[in-house]
């Protein structure tokens, strides 16, 4: 049985982002992955919510889905962290633009926001650059 489309998309993004200059192989397609200082800088890929619109009325109905996807760059909040966060964002945007259909899995990919935040509640202070994307794809009802 094939993996769910959401899983395929999340994995395709993680594969696309693996090997970037700043984060290297530290890319995780997972909602929860404990990171240590040795894992940083890293990228986390999350499939968030999804909006569904039916485009046919006969069964099985065809759907257009828009998935909110988050790519979170996590780095140590040290001197120059803002510059590193900007570099990570640039590398991610460039990589995502290089295959905006993710090998044909999605019809459209749009970056919707970039936010840089600091988390002082962690074991050590970390900075996050959060890049949000809307990914549009078509499917058939019940085949997700």
Please explain how this structure is put together.
With 144 residues, this protein is of the alpha+beta class. The chain has helices spanning 5-17, 81-98; strands at 27-28, 42-54, 62-76, 108-119, 126-140. Strand 4 (108-119) and strand 5 (126-140) form a beta hairpin. It starts with a helix and ends with a strand.
The gist of it:
This protein is of the alpha+beta class and 144 residues long.
If you consult CATH, what is the topology? Alpha-Beta Plaits
Unreliable stretches (pLDDT < 50, length at least 5) are none
Adjacency order of strands in the biggest sheet: 1-2-3-5-4
* Quaternary assembly: single chain
Q: What keywords describe this structure?
A:
144 residues; alpha+beta; Alpha-Beta Plaits; 2 helices
Q: What is the topological layout?
A:
Layout: H1 5-17, E1 27-28, E2 42-54, E3 62-76, H2 81-98, E4 108-119, E5 126-140
Parallel strand pairs: 1-2
Antiparallel strand pairs: 2-3, 3-5, 4-5
